[in-house]
Amino acid sequence: MKRKILYAQDMAELGKNLVKEAGFEIVMAPSEDPEVMKELIRDCEAVVSKTFFLSEDILKEGKKLQVVAKHGVGIDNVVDLATATKLGLYVVNTPLANSDSVAEKTIAGILAFSQKIVKQHLATKALDFESQNCGGMHEIKGKTIGIIGLGNIGQRVAKIAAMGFSMKVIGYDPFVNAEKLPDYIEYTEDINRIYKEADFVTLHLGATPQTIGMMGKEQFDMMKETAVFVNIARGALVVEPELAEALKTGKIAGAVLDVYSTEPMLPDNPLLGLDNILFSPHCAALTDEAGSNMSRDAARGMVEVLTGKKPTWCMNYDAVNQVRENLGK
C-alpha cells in the first residue's frame, strides 16, 4: 500500500507529479470542510495547503502525520508553528518560489498608481480622451522607495527599483546582515527614517506578534503627504481604519493594497469608499510561474521529510527533532 499525502487544496501539476514519482499517493480533499479534513488526514503522513487553516484539532487526527507544507511563504494562514512543533510536525514552506512574482507585483502597483493606469484605462474605454489632461501622473525614476523587510522578496524589489528604475532604496530589517546587502540598498537601523523620507513605503514581512498592527496613525503621520503606502505582504500588519483616515484626510497620497485584515473584504470596510487606493485580491503570488514553483517546492519539502532527508526549507527542524526525540518517534 502506498504512503499517502493529503492535499487540502488542489495545486499545479509539477508538484503533484513529483509526489507521484517519489512513490506516494495523493489524497485530494473534495472540500474545505474541517470534518472532511479530519477524516482524510488520519491515514496520511503529510499534508499541504495553500490557504486552508489546519487547526490543532485537525492535526491531532493525523496519527501518521510527519510534516505540514505551506504552498507559499507565510504560514500564518495555514498552521500555527508552535502547535505544529508541539505535535512533532515539521513545517516546510517555499520561500523562493514566489519572490519574483510578488516583487514584480509591488513595482507594477507602484507604476500603475503613479501613472494612473487603471483610471486612464477606464476613461479611455468610456471614450473620455480628456482624461489625458487629468494631471498628477509621476515618474518613479529618482524617487525614494523605503523597504521594510529585506528577505528574498524585499531584496528583489530593491534590485528592480534600483537597477531598473534608478530609484533610491532605503531598507530596514532588524534580522538581516547589513554587511551582506548589495550596495544599492542603503540600510538604516532607524525604521522611522523610512516613514519620513520615502516616496513609497512598502512592506515585505510576515505577520507575527511583533509586526501585527505595526502600521497605524503614528507611522502614517510621519510620512510625506505625497507618499504612497504599499502592502503586498499581510493585511494584519495595518490598522485599516487608521490607514483609511490617513488617506481620507490627505496625510498620505495613496495606497497600493493586495492584502486585507479580513479576506474577502467586508462591504463596510472603510477603505472601499476611497478612490486613492489601487486594490487587488491577494493575488501577487498567483502567476502561473509562481504556482508551479510553489507546488514543486512544497512537494519537495514533504518528500524530503518522508524519505528521511533534511528538508531544504523547514521552519522548525531542530525544535521538532528535539520534540520527536522526547516523544520517542
From TrEMBL:
InterPro entries: D-2-hydroxyacid_DH (IPR050857), D-isomer_2_OHA_DH_cat_dom (IPR006139), D-isomer_DH_CS (IPR029753), D-isomer_DH_CS1 (IPR029752), D-isomer_DH_NAD-bd (IPR006140), NAD(P)-bd_dom_sf (IPR036291)
Pfam families (UniProt xref): 2-Hacid_dh, 2-Hacid_dh_C
Domain D-isomer specific 2-hydroxyacid dehydrogenase catalytic span(s) in chain numbering: 10-316
UniProt key word Amino-acid biosynthesis: yes
Coiled coil start-end: none
Domain D-isomer specific 2-hydroxyacid dehydrogenase NAD-binding: 108-284
Residues spanning the signal sequence: none
Keywords: Amino-acid biosynthesis, NAD, Oxidoreductase
Domain of life (superkingdom): Bacteria
PANTHER family listed in its UniProt record: D-ISOMER SPECIFIC 2-HYDROXYACID DEHYDROGENASE FAMILY PROTEIN (AFU_ORTHOLOGUE AFUA_6G10090)
Entry's family note: Belongs to the D-isomer specific 2-hydroxyacid dehydrogenase family.
Name of this chain's protein: Hydroxyacid dehydrogenase
Lineage of the species this protein comes from: Bacteria, Bacillati, Bacillota, Clostridia, Lachnospirales
